[in-house]
Design a protein that fits this description.
Blueprint (H helix, E strand, L loop, with lengths): L22 H12 L8 E9 L5 E9 L6 E7 L10 H14 L2 E5 L11 H15 L1 H4 L1 E11 L1 H15 L7 E5 L10 H5 L8 H12 L23 E9 L3 H13 L4 E10 L9 H18 L2
Parallel strand pairs: 3-4, 3-5, 5-6, 6-7, 7-8
Antiparallel strand pairs: 1-2, 2-4
Helix pairs in contact: 2-9, 3-5
């Protein structure tokens, strides 16, 4: 089926993630060498090794704007990739923009990936990274009372799920949650999931493969930490920013999650990006992303910089 994709996205609209699960570890291995999170003229990047779930060693980066000496607010950011792929160059650039333009620090963790490391390992790794940030805030030059948690796609799932964990484990919640076309529902019953089986970048068939790899076809305890929309209550969520892509199998579950939050009294800003497909963030020079980044930065400043 043909979709009315914005002309600025036509190059990326020719791409589609592979349907063979065995290829993902090989692609991730290549991405490890293709994309690096490095310092540049605008930001400084410091690499740490932290303890993840079950004391595994995780590479974690702190990205900070140059020239800032005082403690800064923080965005704890989880990258997308279907729980299967490492961060891309676009992920690193967007994280740098958050740091530079919001005047905050960004904590960025290389959580472990499916299919080798299935649920709950990735989300527990991300929980550990958030806890590490809070516990080491003074050493890192972070104001632990001004923190936003966020991510795109699978990273959005991890951000929402970590927020659930923090609440249920009686830990400090973030001041805000930023979700960019997030994965929120393992049941795959929405209309957009039924409709968009051949969309660019990502589609419903690939989502089924992703869920099989992430949940590993086993009975899942605490399924809400994989499928956050199935949580009994969401009223404890802080202010939330949500973006969904128009031609995306994940479109409706992002809308549904926003509706749940609003019904339970959470303040939500929701934006539907018309003419877009999943992964439109990779078009770094597009007007669509430029405008979206301006909105996101304004929202972050409102949450973090008051």
């Amino acid at each position: 089926m043909k979709y009315n994709i914005n002309k600025e996205l036509l190059k990326i609209a020719k791409q589609k993630a592979p349907s063979n699960i065995k290829l993902y570890p090989l692609i991730s291995f290549a991405m490890k060498y293709m994309f690096k999170c490095k310092s540049d003229d605008a930001v400084n990047v410091i690499q740490y090794e932290i303890a993840g779930y079950m004391d595994a060693k995780l590479k974690t980066y702190v990205i900070e704007p140059r020239g800032c000496m005082e403690d800064l607010p923080c965005v704890v950011f989880y990258h997308g990739g279907g729980f299967l792929l490492r961060a891309s160059g676009a992920h690193y650039q967007i994280a740098k923009w958050y740091a530079e333009r919001t005047k905050c620090k960004v904590v960025y963790v290389d959580y472990r990936l499916a299919p080798k490391y299935s649920f709950p390992i990735p989300v527990e790794d991300c929980y550990c990274a958030y806890q590490w940030t809070i516990k080491n805030a003074s050493k890192l030059g972070i104001d632990k009372n001004r923190i936003v948690i966020g991510g795109d796609s699978a990273g959005g799932n991890l951000a929402a799920s970590v927020t659930l964990m923090l609440h249920e484990r009686k830990e400090q919640l973030p001041n805000g949650v930023m979700l960019i076309y997030p994965v929120t529902d393992r049941r795959m019953e929405t209309e957009s999931m039924k409709r968009y089986t051949d969309t660019p970048i990502w589609n419903a068939k690939l989502s089924k493969m992703m869920w099989n790899a992430y949940l590993n076809d086993v009975s899942v305890v605490d399924v809400k930490y994989a499928s956050p929309i199935e949580a009994e209550r969401l009223s404890f969520f802080p202010r939330t920013y949500m973006e969904v892509a128009e031609f995306d199998c994940l479109h409706d579950e992002g809308i549904d999650f926003s509706d749940r939050l609003r019904q339970e009294g959470v303040v939500v800003e929701l934006y539907e990006e018309k003419g877009t497909c999943h992964g439109f963030e990779t078009a770094l020079k597009s007007t669509i992303l430029i405008n979206a980044m301006e909105r996101r930065i304004n929202w972050l400043k409102e949450i973090l910089c008051k």
